[in-house]
Structure to design on (341 residues):
């Protein structure tokens, strides 16, 4: 009886191995035939103890022969499947090594880089020097030298990232103006583009890390008229069109008199949106005539020299220029956004 079962199982299992189409099917046959607990041939082996001694040897030889044939068939079919899979991969992944390499994927400039370079080229054409400074600044250059001493209430308006040793991440690029006055002296025309940091909540129009550009001109008999002239040229050049602006009094410790220059929102046309906080206007820059104390702190005699200074956000300019309604997109690193520019 066992002889017939062994032969029938052998024939059936070999047929299934031959017709198997995947490694999963092949493994299922192996477990069904040779599994340690429930394999069909394994179970037959457990029944041999019931046979008479003269039958045990014959059935055992027949069972071992069936196992060997099944194992050999499984191995052969597995090799065939592996070879076939390799051929499919080689056909799919084949490349012609005689063809020239495609080369690196070309990138492009970030929208804020476009704006910064345009500003630099514009001011250089008007005789200004482009200066740079460290992002980690001293408290003196970030505050004290700009007429913002330790007890000055203006410090409360700038949420600062403080570092060990009394240093900080600069809250504006104005410290570069201090370095410029100390190093170059008057007469002076300079701009300072760069990254700045504010410890504040992030929303559609505010970031903790953003880009600014400061500008300064120090010479004899500088007036508000000089300031307005350069601001008009700058805004016309950046937006490539006429824009509506308003100038209103503003307080900044490092200028006197000080002004706020607002730009009518180019996204909503003044009707109100999240970027302009529904006001129709976007605060674009602070500006004014350099405070005598700032000149004096940098070793310049305010009785002989005067100047104007301004500071605006390159990030905000980029948003207005390209119609971006969320400041977080600019530094989010999403290639789908950046590839539009």
């Amino acid at each position: 009886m066992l002889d017939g079962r062994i032969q029938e199982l052998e024939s059936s299992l070999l047929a299934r191995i031959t017709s198997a189409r995947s490694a999963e099917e092949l493994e299922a046959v192996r477990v069904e035939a040779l599994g340690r607990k429930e394999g069909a041939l394994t179970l037959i082996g457990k029944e041999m103890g019931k046979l008479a001694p003269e039958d045990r040897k014959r059935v055992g030889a027949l069972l071992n022969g069936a196992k060997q044939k099944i194992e050999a068939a499984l191995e052969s079919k597995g090799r065939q499947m592996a070879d076939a899979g390799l051929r499919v991969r080689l056909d799919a992944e084949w490349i012609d090594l005689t063809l020239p390499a495609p080369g690196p994927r070309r990138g492009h400039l970030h929208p804020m880089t476009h704006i910064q370079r345009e500003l630099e080229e514009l001011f250089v054409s008007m005789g200004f020097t482009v200066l740079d400074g460290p992002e980690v600044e001293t408290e003196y250059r970030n505050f004290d030298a700009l007429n913002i001493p330790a007890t000055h209430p203006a410090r409360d308006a700038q949420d600062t990232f403080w570092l060990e040793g009394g240093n900080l991440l600069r809250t504006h690029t104005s410290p570069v103006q201090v370095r410029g006055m100390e190093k170059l002296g008057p007469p002076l025309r300079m701009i300072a583009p760069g990254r700045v940091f504010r410890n504040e909540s992030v929303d559609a129009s505010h970031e903790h890390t953003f880009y600014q550009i400061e500008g300064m001109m120090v010479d004899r008999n500088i007036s508000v008229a000089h300031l307005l002239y350069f601001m008009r040229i700058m805004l016309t050049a950046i937006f490539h069109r006429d824009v509506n602006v308003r100038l209103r009094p503003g307080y900044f410790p490092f200028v006197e008199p000080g002004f706020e220059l607002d730009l009518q929102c180019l996204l909503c046309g003044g009707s109100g949106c999240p970027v302009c906080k529904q006001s129709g206007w976007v605060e674009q820059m602070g500006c004014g005539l350099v405070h005598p104390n700032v000149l004096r702190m940098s070793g310049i005699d305010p009785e002989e020299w005067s100047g104007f200074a301004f500071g605006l956000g390159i990030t905000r300019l980029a948003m207005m220029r390209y119609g971006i309604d969320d400041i977080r997109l600019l530094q989010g690193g999403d290639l789908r956004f950046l590839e539009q520019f």
